[in-house]
Structures are given as structure tokens and as C-alpha cells.
Design brief:
- Helix 1 packs antiparallel against helix 2 and helix 3 packs antiparallel against helix 7.
- The protein contains ten helices and two strands.
- A two-stranded antiparallel ribbon has the order 1-2.
- It has a single domain, classed as Rhopdopsin 7-helix transmembrane proteins (Up-down Bundle).
- The C terminus is likely disordered.
- The chain is globular and about 65 Å long.
- With 315 residues, it is mostly helical.
- It is a multi-pass membrane protein.
- This is Taste receptor type 2.
- It is found in: Membrane.
- Pfam families: TAS2R.
- Keywords: G-protein coupled receptor, Membrane, Receptor, Sensory transduction, Taste, Transducer, Transmembrane, Transmembrane helix.
Length: 315
């Protein structure tokens, strides 16, 4: 019974990580293709590429960890390295999510304050430096998280696919772990929440203004606000779930809790990829183009089969 449970979980985990990896690679490939074609990448595209790059690392490291737990069940050191890579990718995604929401907030909303108004004019040239600076805190936090742990805890089970290793903390190290999680989860969550709320308020004000003065709730500016608000709300919900999963996985030693949280955590990259695709014109257009080509090819193949069958003489 436990072997069957292990096999089912292993398959589900692998499918989730493959889906996240495929989704992330698709987003990166579309942006790289446009860059090669000379279209260039705006700051939003640059942030999305970095975000999905770490999503791909997260899915890849988790997939490798699952395979190692099956093929090399006693390779604790390898599992610890993969866990560090996974933690680093999650923390990087957290800050890039906050960065994306901040960019929406600065560029879309009207700012009367001098600093924000000046930042709105100068943020595009600064974005490459901001993206580079974002990497330092996740790197430092991952190193401290791994070095301050007492070691690793391996789940006690006879099923090889479920023998996962986790960091353990005690004494002052627990406070260090909580502080790092607050910095890397609490602060980005606060940023995403504040900027999302401001976007929603701007959307409501703009909609009311359009209805009172124009008599229409449409317009390109309103569509941009709606799409940004939708994307940011989805990212906020996604990010809260991701932070909760990360904290529980790092600090809990309950085997059943790990199974549930990993089941949710492995699905996060594909969920975030879907949010980004639906909220970005370029990605959504590329996805629809592929789907239309596949549908046209399928319809053409079906018509060919029907025509061939009709041309055959009756025996």
C-alpha cells in the first residue's frame, strides 16, 4: 500500500515539475525569440524572464530531487544541495514578484509626489541595475539558512520516493530562520499588497471618471489598469500561498505536512506561468498562435482522412 502511495505521489510530483518547467521555458523562449528578432525587451519582459528563469530552476531542482530520492535514497548531501537551490529560487521569485508589482505601480499610476514622479521617468534605465541588485539578498539568505541549520532531517519511511531531507533548526537558529523568512517573505508580500491595493484604487477611480465624463467604461488606459490589477491580484494570492508553503516546509518536521505542502509547492511555477501568460500581450499572443496552428493542423489532418476515405470505391 505504501509503495503504491509512493508511486502515485512520485508521478504527480514529476508531472507538476515538468509542467512548471515547460511553462517557464515557453515564456523564456518567447522573449528570447523576440529579442533575437530585434524587437527588444522592455523592463516588464526583463523581470518576467528573470522570474520564470528561477521558476524553471525551482522545477528542475525539485524534479532532480525526486529522481535522486528514488534512484539514490541515501544521498543526503545531494538532496541538501538541491534543497539550497530550491530555496534560492523561491526567494528570488519572491523579490522579482515584488519588483514586477512595483514597476506596475510606478509606471501605471499617476503620482503627484516628486520622488515617485521622478522615479516614473527614470525607472526604465535603472531596471537592469535593480534586477542585478535583487540577486544579492536571496544568495545571502540561502547561505545563512543552510549554514545556520543543525543538519538535515530525513523522513522516516520505507518508500524511497518519499525520503526527503529537510533543514532543522534549534535555539537561536530558529530565530534566524524566522527572521530570514520574514525579510524574504514578509517584506515582498507587503510590497505586493500595497502596490496591488493602490492599483485597484486607481482602477476604481478611473472607471468612475470614465463613466461620469465619457459615459463609457472602456478605453485603452482602463484596459491596461484592469489587466495590471488582475495580474497583481493573482500574483498576490500566488505569493501568499508560496510563502506559506516555504515557511511550513522549512520549519515543520511532520511527514504528512511535507507531502501536502510539496504537492502544492510543485504546482506553483505552472500557476505563476499561467498568470504571466494571461497578463502579458506578447506571451498570450504567442500561446494563442501556437494553439491556432495546432488546431488548424488537426482540422486539416481530419479533413484529409475524410477525403481519403470518401474517395475509396465501395467493395
Amino acid at each position: 500500500m505504501e509503495f503504491m502511495f509512493s508511486s502515485v505521489l512520485t508521478i504527480i510530483y514529476l508531472v507538476e515539475n515538468i509542467a512548471g518547467l515547460v511553462c517557464s521555458v515557453f515564456i523564456i523562449s518567447v522573449n528570447c525569440y523576440c529579442y533575437i528578432k530585434g524587437q527588444g525587451l522592455n523592463p516588464i519582459d526583463q523581470i518576467i524572464v528573470c522570474l520564470t528563469f528561477y521558476d524553471a530552476i525551482f522545477s528542475g531542482s525539485n524534479g532532480a530531487s525526486i529522481l535522486c530520492s528514488v534512484l539514490l535514497p541515501n544521498a543526503t548531501s545531494v538532496d541538501k544541495i538541491l534543497s539550497c537551490i530550491s530555496i534560492f529560487s523561491v526567494l528570488s521569485c519572491a523579490w522579482f514578484n515584488a519588483c514586477l508589482c512595483c514597476y506596475f505601480f510606478v509606471k501605471i499610476c499617476d503620482h503627484k509626489l516628486g520622488f515617485l514622479a521622478q522615479l516614473k521617468r527614470n525607472i526604465d534605465p535603472l531596471m537592469p541595475r535593480i534586477i542585478l541588485a535583487i540577486h544579492f539578498l536571496p544568495i545571502a539568505s540561502t547561505l545563512v539558512t543552510s549554514l545556520s541549520s543543525n543538519g538535515v532531517y530525513t523522513a522516516n519511511t520505507t518508500a524511497p520516493a518519499l525520503q526527503k531531507s529537510f533543514f532543522t533548526y534549534s535555539g537561536e537558529n530558529v530565530s534566524i530562520a524566522f527572521a530570514l523568512m520574514f525579510i524574504n517573505c514578509g517584506i515582498p508580500t507587503l510590497i505586493v499588497t500595497v502596490t496591488t491595493a493602490h492599483i485597484i484604487v486607481s482602477l476604481c477611480k478611473h472607471t468612475r471618471h470614465m463613466q461620469e465624463n465619457v459615459g463609457d467604461a472602456g478605453g485603452p488606459n482602463l484596459k491596461v489598469l484592469r489587466r495590471a490589477a488582475y495580474t497583481m491580484i493573482c500574483l498576490l494570492i500566488f505569493y501568499i500561498i508560496a510563502c506559506a508553503v516555504l515557511i511550513i516546509v522549512l520549519l515543520s518536521q511532520d511527514q504528512r505536512v511535507h507531502y501536502i505542502n510539496y504537492l502544492m509547492g510543485y504546482a506553483l511555477p505552472s500557476a505563476e506561468g499561467a498568470i504571466l501568460i494571461l497578463g502579458n500581450n506578447r506571451l498570450r499572443g504567442a500561446c494563442l498562435h501556437i494553439l491556432h496552428k495546432y488546431r488548424a493542423k488537426s482540422n486539416h489532418g481530419g479533413e484529409g482522412v475524410s477525403t481519403t476515405g470518401a474517395s475509396q470505391p465501395a467493395s
